[in-house]
Amino acid sequence: MGLTGADIERIVRQARLKARREKRPVRYDDIEEGIRLDRPPVPYDLRWRFAVHEAGHAVVHHALDLGPIHGLNIDTGKGGYNLLGFNPSRSDTVEWYSKMLAVLMAGRAAEALILKRVSGGSGGSDDSDLARATRLALDMERTLGFGEEYPLLYRAYRNPADVLDVDPQVATRVHVRLERGKEAATAVLQQRKDAFEKLIRALFDAQALDGDQVMRVLREDR
């Protein structure tokens, strides 16, 4: 995860050269070593925070039965990320979108729960957790028919800030939805505390887990 095709080709080529020099077959360890050397080491405290954050997303996503988990990664040096899939039979109901908000807010909830303070890692860019959650909550209010005021009015927008900065009432309702999402995520993480903590440790140690490895940890708690 996080590598281009050219990166992978180069790492495999280097692994083959190493194995040839040592007159043996290529081993998985050769590939993994090449990946590790290709990336700068992540400081201990950041690595732990990334593990807490991404484990939070995965646990809530799994608990709410939204779809498969394809992998988690915290060794890029640029923050952690997750590969979460969604069931094709998803239902576009207010309940489903509320679950999505919980998953998006789960990283922040996880940091608050384990670390007792949150970082700016869930925000800061247009594709961040907070940005996506804000757009989703605003869509629920203005375009999806779930608004607490005038739910039947379809009111499109280009930029969330254009609405939220000038309409405090809408901003309040959107913020309430985000708070509810964070509270729902926190409740799940508290209920699945053992699995959550096991996944944090596993991700911290391995730095990258594929979907099968994540699911083994989550299933152990059942």
Explain how this protein is built:
The protein has 222 residues and is mainly alpha-helical. It is 60% helix and 5% strand. It is built from 9 helices and 3 strands; from the N terminus they run αααββαααααβα. The chain has a 3-stranded antiparallel β-sheet. α3 (44-63) runs antiparallel to α4, α4 (94-114) packs antiparallel against α5 and α8 (193-206) packs antiparallel against α9. It is elongated, with a radius of gyration of 20 Å.
Topology, please?
Layout: H1 5-21, H2 28-37, H3 44-63, E1 69-73, E2 81-84, H4 94-114, H5 129-142, H6 160-164, H7 168-191, H8 193-206, E3 208-210, H9 211-219
Antiparallel strand pairs: 1-2, 1-3
Helix pairs in contact: 1-2, 3-4, 3-8, 4-5, 4-7, 5-7, 8-9
Keywords:
222 residues; mainly alpha; elongated
Q: Largest sheet, order of strands side by side?
A: 2-1-3
Order of helices and strands: HHHEEHHHHHEH
Give the strand tally. Answer: 3
Reported for the largest beta sheet, the result is: 3 strands, antiparallel
Strand content: 5-15%
Shape: elongated
Q: Compute the number of helices.
A: 9
- Regarding quaternary structure, what we see is single chain
Provide the structure class.
mainly alpha
- Helix residue percentage: 55-70%
Distance N terminus to C terminus?
28 Å
- Quote the average pLDDT: 91
